[in-house]
């Protein structure tokens, strides 16, 4: 049985697992904490809607303090504590539920920003929807420890400076994930005539973004523009991961993806000192039926597998089977990969790079099963040996 709590803009869906008495007690604790929570936030709205500057904001309420703590590390860019409000509310209610109760699993979902509790050995599966206006399960992930999960994009309920269809982030808390997803989504951006924007206040008088231009529509974009925007987003996500501000990220724009694997899972398959760079490039075109079949049946199972979580996954999408996939279709910074693959007409193509060199170049679904998958699984199953080639390659691109 789920618990639904709603007041004003706060809309919580809560579910817990455990003995019946423990779950009942947790739901009662959630209801008690929810009472008056909105009023606490309203009392501090002027501060919460103000950009974070050089002075640490002094919040009074516990939810407001969570919001400030989540955005403070990002103060070098424009951000207000409101970037973490939904996640902070979810964290607060979940924390209340766990006081004196024994739950195996629990989550508090505040409009897609989710606080998750998992006892040792438990897991939860979560789905990712790229377009909330056309809901479909575009991706899924398995969570095996307590964390926060948040999704942001220009079509979401919050305004965005960027053009991402969806940015989903896993972080230590829901507030941290909320802030990180918001800022990574802002970074997935490019100036192009097909991108339409308006001042935030024109759309919502009380917007904390003021007169900043927020995205209202994204039309057709050329592949180079899509890749450039994705590159900006994944670069920011990677920097946040290095600073322990997020654990993993999924970025979607116009059918193309960037996936930043969870660092902890990667380090489980290769020691930090000896990690090798393992990257998968998937070459495809919209009119390739075999590509569509692989994407529908096999892409997500691969990304959900231990092998998939240990690699960097990149999609290179051409225009049509009638034209070769050339350098213009590759993400920025991947000219080194194109130099080895060259112009390609044969798709689907699955190319595995280890330390910047091709380890497998498989064309077709049979070759994917026969050659690509076994090599990938063997690579992540044994300790890596060297990162030197990766470092040398990165300094030359």
Index terms:
15 helices; alpha+beta; twelve-stranded mixed beta sheet; disordered C terminus; 2 domains; T-fold; 24% strand; 397 residues; single chain; Glutaredoxin
What does this protein look like?
- It is a single chain.
- This protein has 397 residues and is α+β, with helices and mostly antiparallel strands.
- It folds into two domains: 2-218, Roll (T-fold); 268-394, Glutaredoxin (3-Layer(aba) Sandwich), CATH 3.40.30.10.
- The protein is 36% helix and 24% strand.
- It has helices spanning 20-34, 37-42, 45-48, 62-71, 85-97, 174-187, 200-203, 223-242, 263-269, 289-297, 299-304, 306-309, 335-341, 365-381, 388-394; strands spanning 2-7, 10-17, 105-110, 113-118, 124-128, 139-143, 147-152, 166-171, 195-199, 213-218, 248-253, 256-260, 278-284, 312-317, 349-354, 357-363.
- A hairpin with a 2-residue loop joins strand 15 (349-354) and strand 16.
- Helix 4 (62-71) packs across helix 6.
- The longest helix is centred in the middle third of the chain and has 20 residues, at 223-242.
């Amino acid at each position: 049985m789920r618990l639904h709590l709603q007041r004003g803009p706060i809309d919580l869906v809560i579910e817990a697992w455990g003995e019946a008495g423990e779950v009942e007690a947790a739901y009662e604790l959630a209801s008690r904490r929810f009472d008056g929570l909105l009023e606490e936030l309203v009392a501090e709205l002027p501060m919460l809607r103000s950009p974070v500057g050089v002075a640490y904001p002094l919040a009074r309420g516990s939810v407001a303090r969570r919001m400030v703590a989540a955005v403070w590390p990002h103060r070098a860019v424009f951000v207000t504590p409101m970037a973490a409000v939904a996640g902070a509310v979810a964290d607060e209610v979940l924390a209340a539920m766990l006081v004196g109760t024994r739950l195996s699993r629990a989550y508090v979902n505040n409009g897609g920003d989710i606080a998750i509790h998992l006892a040792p050995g438990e897991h939860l599966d979560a789905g990712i929807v790229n377009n909330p206006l056309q809901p479909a399960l575009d991706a899924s992930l398995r969570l095996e420890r307590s964390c926060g999960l948040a999704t942001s994009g220009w079509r979401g309920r919050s305004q965005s400076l960027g053009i991402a269809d969806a940015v989903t982030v896993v972080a230590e808390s829901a507030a941290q994930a909320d802030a990180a997803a918001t800022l990574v989504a802002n970074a997935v951006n490019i100036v192009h005539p097909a991108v339409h924007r308006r001042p935030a206040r024109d759309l919502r008088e009380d917007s904390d973004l003021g007169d900043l231009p927020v995205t209202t529509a994204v039309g057709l974009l050329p592949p180079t523009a899509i890749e450039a925007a994705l590159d900006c987003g994944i670069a920011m996500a990677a920097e946040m991961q290095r600073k322990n501000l997020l654990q993993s990220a999924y970025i979607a724009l116009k059918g193309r993806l960037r996936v930043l694997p969870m660092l902890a899972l990667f380090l489980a398959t290769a020691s930090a000192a000896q990690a090798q760079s393992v990257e998968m490039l998937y070459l495809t075109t919209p009119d390739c039926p075999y590509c569509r079949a692989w994407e529908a049946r096999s892409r997500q199972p691969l990304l959900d597998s231990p092998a998939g979580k240990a690699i960097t996954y990149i999609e290179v999408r051409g225009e049509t089977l009638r034209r070769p996939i050339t350098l213009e279709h590759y993400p920025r910074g991947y000219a080194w990969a194109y130099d080895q693959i060259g112009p390609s007409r044969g798709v689907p193509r699955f190319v595995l790079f280890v330390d910047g060199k091709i380890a497998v170049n498989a064309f077709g679904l049979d070759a994917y099963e026969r050659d690509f998958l076994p090599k990938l699984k063997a690579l992540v199953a044994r300790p890596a040996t060297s990162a030197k080639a990766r470092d040398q390659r990165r300094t030359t691109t």
